[in-house]
Amino acid sequence: MSEEKNTETLEEVVEEKEEKPSKEKKPSEKKKKKDKSSEKIEELEKALNDEKDKRLRLAAEYENYRKRTSSEKLGIYDDATAKAVEELLPVADSLTMAQQSMKDAPEEFKKGFELVSSQLAASFEKLKVEAFCEVGDDFDPNIHNAVANIESEDFEENKISAVFQKGYKLGDKIIRHAMVQVANCD
What we know:
about 190 residues; alpha+beta; 3-stranded antiparallel sheet; 3-stranded mixed sheet
């Protein structure tokens, strides 16, 4: 009987092992678990990379927006300055003409006009407004307005022979084109 007990016990043990899941995992189960965990890691890495990409794009968009608004503000300032200076240009022209016609005026008047002219020029300089156009400069239709032509051998072709009204600019922005006479040679 002792053998029967041993046999039964052995059979029972084998049956119990088949019924209970083994604590050791089969190789196919390990592979499945590794595949699932590596898939999960790949999904998480992809999600992380997507979020990084979104953040970088958002930062770039913000930087572009900041630059654009900054340049727009400068443009608005330049436009406002140009408009204000444009209103003062007739005064500058009048002062220039008055100085040119003061040959017989007393010295005090001449000094007074020179002082006012230099103050106006200093104000333009602070605003970064530049006068341009001198006799002898090359004619450029982008910045000069030719109102007359003359045939002259004293000047080369397409040179400015007379300036009727100075031009003014603020940086690259033309506030007023210069009004000039251009020489043509035969």
